[in-house]
Amino acid sequence: MEKFVINGGHPLKGEILVSGAKNSAVAILPATLLLDVPCIIENVPDISDVEICLKILKGLGAEVKPLNQQGDTYWISCRNVSDFYVPYKEAKKMRASYYFLGALLGRCGNARAAMPGGCSLGARPIDQHLKAFEILGAKQLIEDQQSDIVELHAESLRGGNISMDVVSVGATMNAILAAVKAPGITIIENAAKEPHVVDLANFLNYMGANIKGAGTDVIKIEGVKKLMGNAGEGSTVDYRYSIVPDQIEAGTFMVAAAATKGDVIIKGVIPKHLEAITAKLIDCGVNVEELDNMDAIRVSVENKKIFCPTNIKTEPYPGFPTDMQPQMATLLTIANGESSIMENVWEDRFRYVHELRKMGAEINITQNGAVVRGGDLLTGACVNACDLRAGAAMIIAGLMANGCTEITEIQHIERGYADIAKKLRGIGADIVKI
Ligand code: EPU
Predict the structure, then answer these.
(1) Which long-range contacts (CB under 8 A, 24 or more apart) does 58-63 make?
(2) Residue (of 398, 400, 416) closest to 408 by Cα position
(3) Residue 91: which pLDDT band, with cuts at 50, 70 and 90?
(4) Which atom of ligand 1 is nearest to the CA of 23?
(5) Phi/psi at 35 (5° precision)
(6) Once rounded to an integer, what is the mean pLDDT over residues 172-194?
(7) By the number of CB atoms within 10 A of the CB, which of 59, 68, 157, 367 ranks highest?
(8) Nearest to residue 118, comparing CAs of 149, 148, 92, 100?
(9) Cis link prior to 318 (omega < 30° from 0)?
């Protein structure tokens, strides 16, 4: 069993580069199924969720060729895809397998996949995805509520008005995937506004789609017949698209730099995407400086600094991201006073608290939140990465703690962070994978 071993107490110093966004990549890779020409996707993060996406694509019949040694650029052609069954085992390994439903439906009017797996954060229904597909003309072939399989068929998809009952990243992106080639106009109201929603729309628009309003709460899509870029049929132009930087990886490095009282330049970021995280770090007394001309952000803390407590309320973008909640809670364990955390997106995102307590953290769970009582520095312990972001929190805890921390179940971390131990070693962390 692999684990991370961290000797804490080293302030992080230097420069660190952020990879492409996981939550964009896992939608843009399935979206290639909709294209009528090959494309090249750059800045693809080297994480296990991407590996699974590529495996599913290849299994469906796509040609996928890595174009460089770093493994962050792929040439993909879906010309010969004829299958629409996503293998059960692969679908179960990650949440984002649901994007194959939207993409396959949009491609050929048929899609079949298991109910998606992924981090256990409480109930993770996909009713809004299914509602959107139905409005666009798809029928569920398996009506049994207990079934673990979703199978969809549409005689012919057509545009429609979709009003989401909850703001859902996945349902918004899936509706875009299914609607982009559906004849007529689709309106998505109460849409999610996350950077990865905009990234997916930008990618599809670059390939010839007509999507307006991504990044606002109303998205309008005019279905197009083909997605073949603007060079026309038979052209030999390479269509290249680069995935946006990962907002949550960047935020995780920002908190790690602050929590170890370091001085780190986090490169390859879009500072605008980090505003909610930056604001909370500034509340705590952290110095955050945007280095616009370098697409970078510098996070620094003086050695003797005592952090101020703050209150956090997780919300859809542009609010404070739920995917940064465990990491920020970890920093707050050494703030001077009590901080409250309200989790408004996932009902069960506090499993990491049990692990942090093993390191001496004082955190009480409340009805839909937690109260963190700041105190002494954490002490190294053996802890578990219960899910992806909980795992990121454990790494931050280990980096700031006195002594040695061992983190198990690191496959959860590797689902979303590319080469995290190596990247952190580059800025002075004592972390190894064994
Ligand atoms: N919801 C429904 N019905 C639906 C869909 C969602 O009730 O059909 C509810 C969920 O239960 C939740 C809320 O709506 O309470 C928001 O869920 P959303 O659909 O936005 O989440 P998701 O698309 O399944 C993505 C990210 C998550 C991230 C959330 C929120 C991917 C693959 N996953 O999940 O990322 O927490 O958006 O920003 O994009 C992570 O990266 O660690 C992670 C969990």
Answers:
(1) 59/83, 59/86, 59/87, 59/90, 60/33, 60/84, 60/85, 60/86, 60/104, 62/32, 62/33, 63/38
(2) 398
(3) confident
(4) 39
(5) -80, 150
(6) 98
(7) 157
(8) 92
(9) yes
Whether residue 232 is predicted with pLDDT greater than 70 in this model: the reply is no
pLDDT above 90 covers a percentage of the chain that reads: 86
Tokens 């608290």, residue located: 353
Q: Is the CB of 322 under 6 A from ligand 1?
A: yes
- Strand 240-242 to strand 39-42: parallel, antiparallel, or no bridges (unpaired)? parallel
Task: Decide: 162 in ligand 1 pocket, CB within 6 A.
Answer: no
Map residue 52 onto helix, strand or coil.
helix
Contact at 8 Å (CB) between 22 and 392? no
**How, if at all, do strands 139-140 and 149-153 pair?**
antiparallel
Distance CA 346, CA 219 (A): 24
**Is 284 an active-site residue?**
no
The verdict on the CB of residue 390 being under 6 Å from ligand 1 is: no
Residue 429 CB neighbours (<10 A): 26
Q: CA-to-CA distance for 46 and 422, rounded, in angstroms?
A: 13
Nearest CA to ligand 1 atom 24: 170
Res. 120: pLDDT tops 70? no
Burial class (CB in 10 A: 0-12, 13-18, 19+), 293: exposed
Q: How far is the CA of 96 from the centre of ligand 1 (A)?
A: 10
The pick from 166, 243, 244, 317 for probing ligand 1's pocket by mutation, whose C-beta has the most ligand atoms within 8 angstroms, reads: 166
95 lines ligand 1 (CB under 6 A): yes
Ligand 1, atom 22: nearest CA belongs to which residue?
170
d(CA 292, CA 370): 35
Dist. CA 27–CA 389, nearest whole Å: 19
Does any ligand 1 atom lie closer than 6 A to the CB of residue 325? no
Ligand 1 closest atom vs CA 387? 42
CB of 102 within 6 A of ligand 1: the answer is no
Q: 């439906």: which residue's tokens?
A: 105
Residue 131 Cα: closest atom of ligand 1: 8
Predicted confidence (pLDDT) at residue 230 exceeds the cutoff of 80: no
Ligand 1 in contact with 416 (CB < 6 A)? yes
Per-residue pLDDT, 118: 61
The structure tokens listed for 252 are: 């995780």
> What's the CA-to-centroid distance between 119 and ligand 1, angstroms?
10
First-to-final CA distance of the chain = 8
What is the rounded CA–CA span in Å between residue 160 and residue 168?
18
